[in-house]
Amino acid sequence: MYRKVCPDCKLSSFSPDENLEWDCLYCGKDLTALEVTPIKEREIFNVRPGGLYCAICASELVRHRDELLVCEACFHGYKEHPEVLKASKEEKAQGKRRQVKHKFQGLIISAQPRIRLYRSFDERSHQYMGYALTIQGIMDGNEGEYRIGIGKAAQAKNQFKVGDEISGSCLPVNDRRLEPVDFYKVSALKLLQRPQREEQSPPPWQIAPPPLEIYRQRGHRRLAAQTYRRKCLTCAWGCLMPVEITEDNWKPDRRTYRTETFCYGPLSCPIYKSGPTRKVRGRRGEIFEEEDWVDEQDCCHRNPDE
């Protein structure tokens, strides 16, 4: 395979035979008389991706970073043309400028950790993003329940918990599949009122959620979705996690999404129910079943009431 760079548009064109008549793929200029350059393995070309297909083997390209595309068959790399990349960045910037923040005010009815779970067959990892607050109140003049994501610094400063009245501004999330909340990027966040409340005997534990490091240290058990909805929504140890599943590590762009519920609370909690085991699909239709021993291993360092 050979390459020639058009002197007019500065883009690369390709051909399997250096002796063929050669026209630029982009502007149509005759390149036959130009000197050819042999293509080296895994070379990164400065090309316009067009339909996102490899110029070597015509296989589909997979985006790995903002500028880098890689062929999933022969692993040749491609960089987007600077003009295309610049236009893409300008479009994103315009989108950000068009975003309007929503003002909210209301009572917190749930305060829990905001954690994302990544699965790949029998492997899993977590991303600790912050905290999820559910408020009963008003947003832009509309009354209802709203799930809002905040960072760990805001929680460490204010120690939000059930019963607090708060206000602020927020943006809708970009990808609902990756978030347990509907809004995030909160600004002008204020604690308006913290009423004196009679302490209720747990469960549920309606306390200010502790630092995310505590959740990481404690480990979690799977929690039945029905139990979470009915009894654990207001508990600081409950957690609704968005899950991103990579079925085939050789094709990382092909992912599926779902949500799962977990419990970080004491092992002796009387309302806890584990629910059915979780299953993860892998390559060639294989199924991994996450059995009880996984939860036991994660929480074996804790005492029953801890």
Give a description of the structure.
This protein has two domains: 2-96, no CATH class; 102-299, no CATH class. The radius of gyration is 26 Å and the shape is elongated. A hairpin with a 4-residue loop joins strand 5 (61-63) and strand 6. The chain has helices at residues 82-98, 152-158, 212-218, 225-232, 292-299; strands at residues 2-5, 12-15, 37-38, 44-46, 61-63, 68-71, 77-79, 102-120, 123-139, 142-150, 165-172, 183-193, 221-222, 238-246, 255-263, 278-281, 287-290. The chain has five helices and 17 strands. The strands form four sheets. Strands 8, 9, 10, 11, 12, 13, 14 and 15 form an eight-stranded mixed beta sheet that branches. The N and C termini lie far apart (65 Å). It has 306 residues and is of the alpha+beta class.
Task: State the gist of this model.
The chain is of the alpha+beta class and 306 residues long. Helix content is 15%, strand content 38%.
Topology:
Blueprint: E1 2-5, E2 12-15, E3 37-38, E4 44-46, E5 61-63, E6 68-71, E7 77-79, H1 82-98, E8 102-120, E9 123-139, E10 142-150, H2 152-158, E11 165-172, E12 183-193, H3 212-218, E13 221-222, H4 225-232, E14 238-246, E15 255-263, E16 278-281, E17 287-290, H5 292-299
Parallel strand pairs: 4-7, 8-14
Antiparallel strand pairs: 1-2, 1-3, 5-6, 6-7, 8-9, 8-11, 9-10, 11-12, 13-15, 14-15, 16-17
